[in-house]
Write the structure tokens for this entry.
Amino acid sequence: MPRVGVLALQGDVREHTSMLERVGADVVAVRSVEQLDDLDGLVMPGGESTTIAYLLTTSDIRATLEKKIEDGMSVLGTCAGLILLAHEILDGRSDQWSFDVLPLAVRRNGYGRQISSFETLVNVKGLGDVPGVFIRAPKIETWSEDLEVLAFHDHGDGEHPVLVRRERIWGCSFHPELTNDDRIHRLFVDAL
Amino acid sequence: MSSSHDSSTIGSALVKRGLADMLRGGVIMDVVNPEQAKIAEDSGAVAVMALERVPSDIRRDGGVARMSDPEMIQGIQAAVTIPVMAKARIGHFAEAQILEALDVDYIDESEVLTPADEENHIDKWAFTVPFVCGATNLGEALRRIGEGACLIRSKGEAGTGNVVEAVRHLRTINAQMRRLQSADANELFALAKDLQAPLPLIQEVSLTGKLPVPLFCAGGISTPADAALVLQLGAEAIFVGSGIFKSDDPERMAKAIVEATTHFRDAHVVAKVSTGLGAAMKGIETASLEQRLAERGW
């Protein structure tokens, strides 16, 4: 059984935990650096990216996690998690840092404020239509060619990637954990 | 290549409750100007509540407390990247329409402002923007959810710096939920009548043992220990009003409360962040209050 951590500093940790358990993972809530030991993968949940980034620093997790990712730990980031993995953050705080492991530029709240938050169907390569819940969602504006794009969405301004992967790092601008469809979590866990 | 085209839905219950889910484990801070909003964001707040006066000042000044000036709300929206909430008076749907037009991220139909309607709350289903409402017990929480609230906060007693009412309301809501869980199906009709709440919601809580929307806590939280207390009592996130910007060192207090909220079960962390914080807000013993805000709303 793969051992998967959910970064449990802030955000929708519970939903990710139950999804991962459904697809057969042994789940660990990660609030301290010791809890990063012996994980096969880690999920960075939705929440506020500025808050999670702040707490990663104050909880002394940041440097160790950076090293673990560099050494090949698999990571799935949804929404705020995608922002934390991005190479470049647009419209963020001037001092906002990220792990810089996905070669893309993401705009915080790129799909608008809460009133513009939406649900739609997202067509994922190999899975078909998957419900996509976008909440103050980040928008991937530019991306490198070696990024594998598993799904695009056209919100009236051309196609933007919404589910991406580079080797062991996965990023998703929507919230598969808020729905009843566990196929994206299964894809991640099966690849561990 | 896979792609989806736009046939999207805005304002669904999932999308509205979803933002509340994203705020879980966080601290929402009352701020009265862009400078305070920046301090809140720098200190790890998940959202700010934009208002003209914090509850302790509303309490001191008296008079009618209304929705804030749009200019002030827009100034705060421009200053931070995190969600911005704002308060409308109970029943004042026109204030809520204005706040929706201003693109605020959440509306708090709040007892901290002077009620505009003594019988009816706002029909919150009519809005795309989500609402949070206060509750002192389970019946009140379920009535608000029936009206379309997507997030409930236990009311506590705002502006007092005294956590006793927050504890009372959380414990009441939890005890009433446990009672529903242990009831058999025949008893739920009478319980719905007693609690004056919609039967389908009573049946849902009886099955799941929790509210259909997230439960946060507000009203009187003013130290990291208060945060750890209410989170251990089942609150999923907290609203802090006067507790931060009426303390000696707001930035330090804000950071300490944020860390205590994340590590609420780890007394070593809560002890560390509580050390040398300076004075918390002075606070008021609730028995001496002339006006109890929690009694507003029905």
Chain A touches chain B through 56 residues (CB under 8 Å). The mean pLDDT of chain A is 97. Residues 13-22 of chain A form the longest helix (10 residues).
